[in-house]
Amino acid sequence: MKEVAVGILFREDKVLAGQRRKDAAYPLKWEFPGGKLEPGETPEEALRRELREELNIRAEIGQEIHRQEWVYPDSGRRSKGDGSFRVFYFRVTAFTGEMKNRAFERIRWLPLPNLIQLDFLEGNREALEILLRHGHAHPET
Question: How many Å from the N-terminal Cα to the C-terminal Cα in the chain?
Fold first, then answer.
């Protein structure tokens, strides 16, 4: 099982979403930024590294707001492994640096209710639904 750390970045009343590149697996689907843990990394360390690599920011990782296990039925054919993931979702409380998109087709800051209009990656939908049910941009768990 692969482990992935994902950041829910808030800025005022908006949340950041990234659209996967055309040549990536699940092309042009929307997702929250983050990535796979490397050996010896905690989820928080991995998320800090991924946000620096993907968005050129230094992030302060807040509380974990959701954890799930997810299986992409076809991902075992796409890469090594069985297609199962353990995903850690963290609230990103603050960040510094000039944000630069280094990993996505495009990124967008949107009010939380507007995220539902995007074609989100299936594995991120549970977290998105939790955020939407909560009703505002700063969930508490």
Answer: 25
